[in-house]
What does this fold into?
Amino acid sequence: MSMPPDREAPAEHPIEALLRRRWSPRSFTGAPVERAALDSLLEAARWAASSSNQQPWHLIVARKADEPEAFGKLLGVLAPGNQPWAGQASVLMLAVARMVNPANGNPNRHAFYDTGAAMAQMALQAAALGMQLHQMGGFDAAKAREVFGIREGYEPATAIALGPVGVAEALPEALAAREVAPRQRRPIGEWAFFGGWQV
It folds into this structure.
């Protein structure tokens, strides 16, 4: 089950169907993700663009069925509100950005931007394979650093839940309502300015 048709983005201008199908569900079936599918997602992230081709992204990947201890640790660094639904995902991940250029040790101020670009490509590949992933800012970065021994120069950027999508009814009532609420985005005119800055 990829997604209900009514979850497709109501785009106001023509965009690729895959972009319309990508969304961030909270209900997952928990069915295992095949290693070949996971490798495909990682390959999609691998080919993201990055400043000076530094490719600063790193991922801790924990499959619920295959790396249950790591899965539990990742679940434990999530915000309490994310833990119940994310615990039903097939895979949890933690994206970590390398904050320095390995060639010269200089700061890479584009590291988070580039890591986000890689995760966006992975999200689209998940949608193409009939799954979805949900990126979360709701996690304890300091705890993640401690639990996984993430050394200086690397920063946890986002937590990710991945898997086949479940039904909204499997969620608590408040989350189920959000799962089926109309999808919305700011109008383009609020953030795209032709000819100069207007904020």
Remarks:
- The chain has a mean pLDDT of 96.
- The longest helix spans residues 111-128.
- DSSP finds seven helices and four strands in the chain.
- The helical segments are 17-21, 35-46, 68-77, 83-86, 111-128, 141-148, 173-180.
